[in-house]
Amino acid sequence: MRKETAKWPGFYLVVVLLAISSSGCWTSWSESYRYNKEQPFDVYALYELLDARPEGLHFLEDSLALLRDTTATGGNYVFVGSYAYYTETSVTDLLNYVERGNNAFIAAYDLPEDLATFLFSDDCYYSFYDENERILLESEDTLQMKLIWDSSAYEVHNVYNFEPYARPTRYINGGLFCDEALDNEIIGTFNEVNINFARLHWGEGDFFIHTNPIFFTNYYLVDSLQYQYAEAALSVLGPGPVYWDENSRVPPSAARQRNNRNARNNQQGYNGGRNLLTGNEALSYVQEQPPLALAWYTLLLATLLYVIFRGKRRQRIIPILHQRENSSKRFIDTISRLVFQKGHHLALARQEVASLRHHLHERFGLRWREGEPPPENLGEAIGAPAELADRALIEIRIVQNRKHLDDHELMRFYRAIEPLYKL
């Protein structure tokens, strides 16, 4: 009978890859704010809702010049994203557009400095030299939102991967509203005291600044329990047409880097967790691209299967090599026994004196050279009792001065010096 080759690891690899490709694992939880994508933190739903308004939607892709050309009032400029970058020309066009009696709704994590310097007084704005003092952070997974014109309280949950997540939520430092002469108004808060929505008057129109753009993304607009807050906040838009700004959007990579940097600078009181993709630009981009994500998961799975099925030992087990027995002591004992049997007791005793001299030098640092008599202060040098040291000195001198030793004298010598090895 022909033996079939086991191919089941490869079969399971194919099955797992098919399961991954069909299980919706491509959900990306990075904040991309793309108007044409349907991931949780994109803005496709908002874009479609605004585009369905009877007044229509105008797409600003290359510049804000279209705002310059319009003379109608009651229109709405809309930007929703991590950060907005305005050139000097864009700031001028936007200010003139609002000044004529239009509205500008900007939901971003930071106040665009070139624009904010016009909307806040210098005394208030520049009293905070560090930009991280103007926008502050509070990390919680559940927020109580309030709007000044609405008595209702909206409970909004920060989530990641459909689970509660203590995301750093930004709010405006109240010190920016120190100038009461300006017609600037706080119109929204979360957790009672944190300002996340403000109306800043300019000319005949208003800027509406919201510091939590994530609450206008797909996830929050299609969730039946959380869409009410976004719906109420967007009620500030006027009846006119909407101008959707894609030109001023910071690229997602730059937005994430800036977001992570600001989070680190404002993290004094944050003890929340950190997911794998936070701050990892490469992995975030891979997750956003299905082909790259499939290749990434395939590589991980192939590596795991290799470790399980091919990483086992394939060579023969290395035999245990027992340590060779040291036979030097046995050799010395044999030689000593032969010398003793031949009656060379003096040679044995003098050899033992040499061994004792080496031992005392290594153990106590005693300087006793070959051929010299033992030191008189032997007991003090090695810390031996006086009686023990005196007895050893007598026997050592006998061995050094005699020309012959009998059995009795050799045994007496050994008994005298043996205690010195035990000190």
What is the secondary structure topology, with strand pairs?
Elements: H1 8-22, H2 44-51, E1 57-60, H3 65-69, E2 76-80, H4 88-99, E3 103-107, H5 113-119, H6 122-125, E4 135-140, E5 142-147, E6 150-157, E7 159-160, E8 163-164, E9 167-172, E10 184-190, E11 194-202, E12 205-210, H7 218-222, H8 227-233, E13 242-245, H9 252-265, H10 281-288, H11 290-309, H12 328-341, H13 345-364, H14 378-382, H15 386-401, H16 407-417
Parallel strand pairs: 1-13, 2-3, 2-13, 3-12
Antiparallel strand pairs: 4-9, 5-6, 5-10, 7-8, 10-11, 11-12
Helix pairs in contact: 1-11, 13-16, 15-16
Characteristic key phrases:
elongated, 16 helices, alpha/beta, 2 domains, Rossmann fold, two-stranded antiparallel ribbon, disordered N terminus
CATH class of the largest domain: Alpha Beta
User: What shape does the CA trace take?
Assistant: elongated
| Fraction of residues in helix | 40-55%
Total domain modules: 2
Give me the CATH fold name of the largest domain.
Rossmann fold
End-to-end Cα distance, whole Å, is 78 Å
Describe the structure in your own words.
It is a single chain. With 423 residues, this protein is of the alpha/beta class. Helix content is 40%, strand content 17%. The chain contains 16 helices and 13 strands. It has helices at residues 8-22, 44-51, 65-69, 88-99, 113-119, 122-125, 218-222, 227-233, 252-265, 281-288, 290-309, 328-341, 345-364, 378-382, 386-401, 407-417, and strands at residues 57-60, 76-80, 103-107, 135-140, 142-147, 150-157, 159-160, 163-164, 167-172, 184-190, 194-202, 205-210, 242-245. α13 (345-364) packs parallel to α16 (407-417) and α15 (386-401) packs antiparallel against α16. The longest helix has 20 residues, at 290-309.
